[in-house]
Amino acid sequence: MKSILFFLCVFALATGYGQDKSKRPSPPAVEKQTLKNGAAVSIDYSQPAVKGRTIGKDLEPTAGKVWRTGANEATVFETSKDVKVEGKALAAGKYGLFTLVDSATGDWTVIFNKTWNQWGAFDYKQADDVLRVKAKHKKADEFAERMTFTISRDGDVHLLWGDNDVKFEVK
User: How far, in Å, CA of 159 to CA of 169, rounded?
Assistant: First the structure.
């Protein structure tokens, strides 16, 4: 009996059972907004920090590789109503939000994947993509030490990460 109890305690500690996610090096965050059309949109993600490292070299995203757009679990994008993302239809629901930086141009693609409940991008499958859109990328006005999403009532979604400002529209 003692060995079973010991095993369960070790298993609980090893798997992070009961772990306080706010204590992680990349803590959880949620950005929520009700758009003018009444759609409730949320992005649930973890916030990595730059900590003096170089994005694209020491930190993701790495050009040409799909990124979970955050840390820890895959980032989750949810909308309560059907919307258009950069003019393309996206049905109400939950999606894994991934990004891809083109190695030649530096352009960003935002990916909505039907498999939202996964760790990172390790189980990502392109066949599960529901929508891919090109995002507008520019140098951010201010350096973002922690990766951050913002959503305006007009549906402008910004991903701020280091000196990157990546924008896509949800209407």
Answer: 12
Radius of gyration of the chain (CA): 18
Q: Which domain holds residue 78?
A: 24-169
When divided into structural domains, the chain yields a total of 1
Would you give the end-to-end CA distance of the chain in angstroms? Answer: 58
In a domain, 33, yes or no: yes
Confidence of residue 22 (pLDDT cuts 50, 70, 90): low
| 10 lies in some domain | no
Q: What is the pLDDT of residues 95-105, one digit of tens each?
A: 999 999 998 88
Ordered DSSP codes for 128-153: GEEEEEEEEEEEEEEEEEEEEEEE-T
User: pLDDT tens across 110-123, in order?
Assistant: 999 999 988 877 78
